[in-house]
Design a protein that fits this description.
heterodimer; A: about 180 residues; mainly alpha; globular; B: about 625 residues; alpha+beta; six-stranded mixed β-sheet
């Protein structure tokens, strides 16, 4: 497994945004069977260290390909698109407004009559938005080579996904604290 | 076959020989040891036929007593008899005070990272107390199996953080055990259950022990046990049920909070007995002996008991919800719920779990022994008794790991429920011109503020090459191994200089402290230190040579004749050295062989990866 090997090469899969998840999981399990530290409990120190490193690399590759957002980002990176999270936040104003509104409704939850029900609505809404963005990403990747404009579009979409995922986490955190009180 | 000559009559170098391995469930209340004998994993009894060893250690002026005898003495000698020590593993004095409940021992009020308990035979740390329990189990296994243990697997609550895991591993080392792996308790239970029932699909393991609670969601697929998510509470268990009953008695009988240690111990004992009675009866009679010699009697109904423990059970359901969500599954996806730990015998616990998961939990496996049995099964595989076994455990890290950033905030580096082993790199730079050192504060937990997370330690980086501010790029790599233990390495990327790292664990022992304790314990055992160290190195050399021989047999064709010859040369030298008595030389010989075989090992690993998927593709077409 040389440094230059991509995650797709590791799993012997074609570079594609569409991934058969059960097949990927199956390949992942077989790779782990070959390198997992449990197979090297009696091996030399170096072999054990190497096994931990390889197993960690396979875990990382699997997580990257499994998550649509990370997969999209990774595929862009393979096409030499660089991400600088601090600077890259130029999203369209309409999207940002929506985000602020969603965030506000989350923070106002505790004052509402039925916070759990309202939260369920918000969570369904976020889930819906995520699947819309995912569809858009998937469409962009349907052509094999992305032109510069497409790369930019996908990059924006990946950023949107990041926002939405964060929002989802926050909603889940809210749900936990609401349930904790009950 | 040059290497086979190291085999001498009476020495065990046959790679196919059965090695002795054991699984240890180091519990809050009871501990067990199990081993695989003629293909069957079973817990091992003591001479009286008892399988479970009470996790109680009593220190007297001239001896250490472990188990039932110590438990019996607890009420009479509360200060020197330590029970539930698992609750203090890897914790600081401040944590222990916050654990709640009355702690019936006296902790030394010192400014040490590791709390120490005052006893008549001196101050002891929780690691040392646990090591006594492990030593007792080790002795039991070696008597029963008739030989030295090659290695053991010790189980820990899945929700144990890094400090608690490290403390457990240290206790194993201190007890003279070769700890092959720390295994999460619910995962161990899943292995025992899954292999026994040939189960496939998503299962939930609800593990409520004496002092800890875990919930794990796993996917079982053809021998692969993949933990999807885990959650829990490391300070919640049957002990708290006892305490709830004791508190109720105190209220009813008018016993004050500042009552004597003896009274408290008796109350806890009686409360525990009442709890057990209520498993099969609807009422329990209480006859409490008071300090003034009088007695207090009353009846505790199951209904009242259920009411007392309801908030505690509720506390276990929130982690269940979180684990399901992190695993990305619904209640309907869970095919079975496996109950583990003595506290799942409580009827109200079973009812509430059934309500939550919308199905009857499985109670046909022994909740007390299933963890030790699962650990024994894995230990058997790890020592190499089952070379071609399909068993593969993929576990997760229970709590996120992060770093302190500006303003006392935590930046997450590895999030909870990430499959281990895992490695993540993070780049840092210098703040000032010519800066050659920096400090990194590592934390574990889910909260945003440093003060709400658990401090694992501070890593001081030295020997950073002097540059202008912001020019250095120090890549710090966090690696969590298959035991769930964190290690940190650092490297300056522009010059390639490895930075020195000094680790200061926030809670826990430094390597030096462990070594000192180890040396002390060997001296106390009146063992011949030098002889023991020599034997250890000889066994290690033997192990390394054996592994190499097996590797040659499998993949010898990866080497040219010359390459093979070069490795053989070093191997033969080690084989000669290991017959001698120079510990240092054998140690160096092992390191040298390790180095000589580096390229071979790397080629083998890559070959394994290729072969793994080659098989897959053949299956497919």
């Amino acid at each position: 497994m040389a440094q230059t090997q991509t995650h797709f090469e590791l799993f012997e899969l074609p570079v594609s945004f569409e991934i058969d998840l059960p097949d990927l999981s199956q390949r992942y399990r077989e790779l782990q069977r070959a390198v997992h530290p449990d197979k090297f409990a009696n091996a030399s120190d170096y072999e054990r260290r190497l096994s931990v490193e390889k197993a960690a690399a396979i875990n990382d590759a699997f997580q990257t390909l499994k998550s649509p957002q990370r997969r999209a980002r990774y595929m862009l990176e393979l096409q030499s698109v660089s991400f600088d999270d601090e600077k890259d936040m130029a999203l369209d104003p309409a999207f940002l407004m929506e985000q602020i509104e969603l965030r506000e409704s989350l923070s106002e939850l505790t004052q509402s009559d039925n916070p759990l029900e309202k939260l369920n609505h918000i969570m369904a809404d976020i889930k819906n938005r995520i699947s819309v963005v995912l569809d858009e990403i998937s469409q962009q990747f349907s052509s094999s080579e992305l032109d510069d404009a497409q790369k930019d579009t996908v990059k924006q979409l990946v950023h949107k996904m990041q926002f939405l995922n964060k929002l989802q986490q926050e909603a889940e955190f809210q749900e936990e604290s609401l349930l904790d009180v009950l | 076959m040059a290497l086979l000559q190291i085999s001498e009559p009476g020495q065990s170098t046959n790679p196919h020989e059965h090695r002795l391995a054991a699984g240890i469930d180091l519990g809050t209340t009871n501990s067990l040891i199990a081993s695989v004998k003629s293909g069957l994993a079973e817990t091992l009894p003591d001479e009286q036929g008892n399988h479970s060893l009470p996790s109680v250690v009593r220190y007297t002026e001239n001896e250490v007593v472990v188990g039932q005898e110590a438990r019996t003495a607890a009420a009479d000698d509360p200060l020197n008899t330590i029970s539930s020590v698992k609750r203090y593993m890897g914790r600081g004095l401040k944590d222990i005070k916050e654990l709640g409940g009355r702690r019936p021992y006296e902790f030394v009020d010192a400014d040490s990272a590791v709390p120490r308990i005052k006893t008549v035979s001196g101050d002891v740390s929780p690691v040392e107390v646990s090591a006594e329990i492990l030593k007792s189990l080790k002795q039991r296994a070696e008597d029963a199996l008739g030989g030295d243990l090659t290695g053991v697997v010790i189980t820990v609550p899945a929700y144990f953080d890094d400090a608690q895991r490290q403390a457990t591993k240290d206790a194993g080392k201190l007890a003279g055990l070769n700890v092959l792996r720390l295994l999460n308790e619910p995962t161990a239970a899943a292995v025992a259950y899954g292999l026994d029932k040939q189960a496939e699909g998503v299962i939930a393991v609800y593990d409520l022990g004496g002092g800890t609670f875990d919930i794990s969601i796993l996917r079982l697929n053809k021998g692969v046990f993949e933990v999807m998510a885990t959650a829990g509470d490391t300070a919640l268990g049957g002990d708290d049920f006892d305490y709830a009953i004791a508190k109720w008695i105190m209220d009813e009988a008018g016993i004050k909070d500042d009552t004597s240690h003896h009274q408290m111990r008796r109350l806890m004992r009686d409360a525990c007995a009442a709890k057990e009675t209520l498993t099969s009866n609807v009422t329990a009679e209480l006859n409490i002996e008071l300090d003034d010699g009088s007695a207090w009697s009353n009846t505790l109904t199951r209904e009242k008991f259920n009411q007392l423990i309801a908030p505690l059970i509720q506390k276990t359901l929130l982690p269940c919800r979180r684990a399901l969500r992190d695993a990305g599954v619904d209640v309907a996806d869970v095919q079975s719920v496996v109950m583990v730990g003595g506290s799942t015998r409580v009827p109200h616990v079973r009812d509430k779990v059934a309500d939550f998961f919308e199905q009857q939990p499985l109670t046909d496996i022994n909740p007390d022994t299933v963890v030790a049995v699962g650990a024994a099964l894995q230990a058997d595989v790890l020592v190499g008794n089952k070379a071609d076994d399909d068993l593969l455990l993929l576990d997760v890290i229970p709590l996120s790991l992060g770093l302190e950033t500006m303003g006392g905030l935590v930046e997450k580096v590895i999030s909870r429920n990430t499959t281990i082993p895992v490695a993540r790199a993070q780049d840092f730079t210098t703040f000032k011109d010519g800066q050659t050192a920096m400090s990194i504060h590592v934390l574990q937990g889910e909260r945003e503020l440093v003060s709400d997370c658990r401090s694992l330690g501070r890593f001081a980086l030295h020997e950073i090459p002097a540059m202008v501010a912001g020019a250095a790029r120090i890549r710090v790599t966090f690696q969590v191994d298959a035991d769930g233990l964190l290690s940190v390495t650092a490297r300056e990327e522009t010059t390639g200089v490895e930075s020195g790292i000094e680790v200061k664990p926030s809670y826990g022992l430094t390597d030096n402290e462990i070594e000192t304790m180890l040396r002390d314990s060997i001296e106390h055992a009146e063992d011949d230190v030098a002889a023991r160290m020599l034997r250890e190195q000889q066994v290690e050399a033997e192990r390394v040579l054996e592994a190499l021989e097996a590797a040659f047999e499998e993949d010898g064709d990866l080497l040219s004749a010359d390459e093979r010859k070069a490795i053989d040369l070093v191997a033969n030298k080690l084989s000669e050295l290991s017959k001698g008595s120079d510990v240092r030389e054998i140690k160096d010989g092992i390191a040298e062989l390790d180095k000589a075989a580096t390229e071979f090992v790397a080629r083998r690993m890559d070959g394994n990866i290729k072969k793994a998927l080659a098989g897959h593709n053949v299956d497919e077409f």
